[in-house]
Design brief:
The chain has 92 residues and is an alpha/beta fold. It has 3 helices and 3 strands. It is globular and about 40 Å long. It starts with 6 loop residues before the first helix and ends with a helix.
Length: 92
């Protein structure tokens, strides 16, 4: 992205062409309107296409958003390598 280009426009364009959105779940990220807007957008694609698009990654204890509570998450809190293996299995 170059100086002067639209950040929201670039994010929107990237979301349109991405296969997945990795949602890092932390105390700060669940409070972020930007993070929420980004995964909400891909969540709608997940529903309409009936394909997994959102991959939650738990990096610290936090209140998981309601729409993500039913999803299995990769747990990076105690064992990074185990969390990474869990995440990579989503791409098989």
């Amino acid at each position: 992205m170059k100086i002067g280009e639209s950040i929201p426009g670039s994010i929107s364009q990237a979301l349109q062409v991405s296969d997945y959105v990795l949602v890092l779940l932390s105390k700060n990220s669940i409070k972020s309107a930007w993070v929420e807007q980004e995964w909400y957008t891909k969540y709608w694609d997940e529903i309409t296409e009936r394909k997994v698009k959102i991959l939650p990654i738990l990096i610290e204890d936090c209140n998981i958003p309601e729409l993500l509570k039913t999803k299995k998450y990769a747990d990076f809190r105690e064992d990074y390598n185990r969390g990474l293996r869990e995440l990579l299995l989503a791409f098989d």
